[in-house]
Amino acid sequence: MKEMNCCLTLVCHRSLEERIVDHLLGHPDWVRGFSLTRIEGGSQKEKLPSMLEQVRGRSQRVEIVTVMNCDDAHALIAHLKQVESNPEIAYWLTPVTEFGRLS
């Protein structure tokens, strides 16, 4: 089994949620599981598609977090850059020193 040594966080507009989730589910060799949280966010470069979001100054987003192998995370990021090239999708990687289950 590959070492689970990396946490990949993806943040995107909610309109992209299903497409991103489909990519994660389509690569079970890279992604073994993930958590998804609905959040709000804003940035200076962000496009706010709806009138409500423009008035509020922030948009409805999703944050997807998955603990995975670092090499697999880089492969997934390369794949997403190729098929979902979009400046509205942000990501970051953080090291994981330990990952396990309590049973």
Give a description of the structure.
There is one protein chain. The chain is an alpha+beta fold and 103 residues long. The chain has one domain (6-95): Alpha-Beta Plaits (2-Layer Sandwich). The protein contains 3 helices and 4 strands, in the order βαβαβαβ. It has helices spanning 17-25, 51-56, 70-83, and strands spanning 6-13, 35-41, 59-68, 90-95. The protein has a 4-stranded antiparallel sheet. The chain is elongated, with a radius of gyration of 15 Å. The mean pLDDT is 90.
In short:
The chain has 103 residues and is α+β, with helices and mostly antiparallel strands. 28% of the residues lie in helices and 30% in strands.
Shape: elongated
Ends distance = 18 Å
List low-confidence stretches.
none
- Classify the fold: give the CATH topology: Alpha-Beta Plaits
In the CATH scheme, the class would be Alpha Beta
Largest sheet features: 4 strands, antiparallel
Helix and strand succession? EHEHEHE
Q: Strands across the major sheet, in which order?
A: 2-3-1-4
Mean pLDDT: 90
Radius of gyration, rounded?
Answer: 15 Å
Can you tell me the CATH architecture?
Answer: 2-Layer Sandwich
How many domains in all? 1
Q: How many strands in all? A: 4
Tell me the β content: 25-35%
Helix count, DSSP H or I runs of 4 or more residues: 3
Protein structure class? alpha+beta
Helix content: 25-40%
